[in-house]
């Protein structure tokens, strides 16, 4: 994986209407990856590719605006509650969540595995909705969590559903991010794209995590909003490849068809 660089510089050169200060402030908020994570200026600079002096000013400003809280004893920042209001406003603006939930729960009840919907956030997928199954041993991934784009079924489904030009752009970003690991990642993505074109779904068999299998199907909204993918995943010893390919995948394809029929 290659070192993080400041992406705002290139954007500023290409678009004179681009507000670099705003972009850098948002990049700083993106640097917080785990619940309750506390970061100092040095860690924020490393994650964003920004200079420590720039990070210091941005963090100070975000603290004053109450988007970050600051602990003077540790000299570290955490995300503050006002950030959460932005996330909930976003979720409230996705009516597909409520339309799809009954269908998702039906499949979760049938398989005993969690069924989720997610959308791309750069090189990861963020969970927008999740329905729990009855199996006691399942993946504990909640709404708002991020998982990898390149090695998960849901990420591959999202990639596969884009038009060729946009798909090539995304894959170039993945290749840059993966660096020397790209030759290990590329075959799985290419196979998933072929599976989607032939069967309508994508899979990941112990590639994201060594004991997890999953299947996913993309949904392309008619209104031009971002592509969403639905997935079903669980322990590989229970959600076997054979069960996915002979049954679960086809049920997930049908789920997305039913969602498309009621979506605005």
From TrEMBL:
InterPro entries: GAF-like_dom_sf, HTH_MetabolicPath_Reg, Tscrpt_reg_IclR_C, Tscrpt_reg_IclR_N, WH-like_DNA-bd_sf, WH_DNA-bd_sf. Residues 19-81 form the HTH iclR-type domain. Keywords: DNA-binding, Transcription, Transcription regulation. Residues 82-264 form the IclR-ED domain. The keyword Translocase does not apply. GO terms for biological process: negative regulation of DNA-templated transcription. It holds the Pfam family IclR_C. It comes from the Bacteria. GO terms for molecular function: DNA binding; DNA-binding transcription factor activity. PROSITE patterns: HTH_ICLR (PS51077), ICLR_ED (PS51078). PANTHER family: HELIX-TURN-HELIX TRANSCRIPTIONAL REGULATOR, ICLR FAMILY (PTHR30136), TRANSCRIPTIONAL REGULATORY PROTEIN (PTHR30136:SF33). This is Transcriptional regulator, IclR family.
